[in-house]
Amino acid sequence: MAEFSWPVRVYYEDTDAGGIVYYANYLKFCERARTEWLRALGVEQDIWLREGIGFVVRHVALDLRAPALFNDTLRVTVVPSRIRKASIECRQEIYNAAGTLLCVADVKAACVHLNTMKPVAIPGPIIEVIGRGS
Known about the structure:
Keywords: Hydrolase. By secondary structure, this protein is of the alpha+beta class.
């Protein structure tokens, strides 16, 4: 499936006292990229949230390979790897400006009804644009 990428700048707030990105912040970078990927496909999540439909991360596997540093410019990719009735799995990679792979994240997000937090089928319009964008 097609790769989407999103630029991220490392701010001081993203780092520890040594200027190295704190591991949990890689998850934030990935979340931003997935949101922008959906937005680029025309999926505005706030509209679906008003309908009671949202995506929640169910599983993440994070492989940290090299550190990102304060003021680095990063590229965060999103490649949907599996689309099921009520979930999407993505492979995400984070690279620095030199092209060094810093982090690999495998993310599974479930589509849920926010009132019950039970899985629901991903709405057809979202499936359609994801299919076209891949």
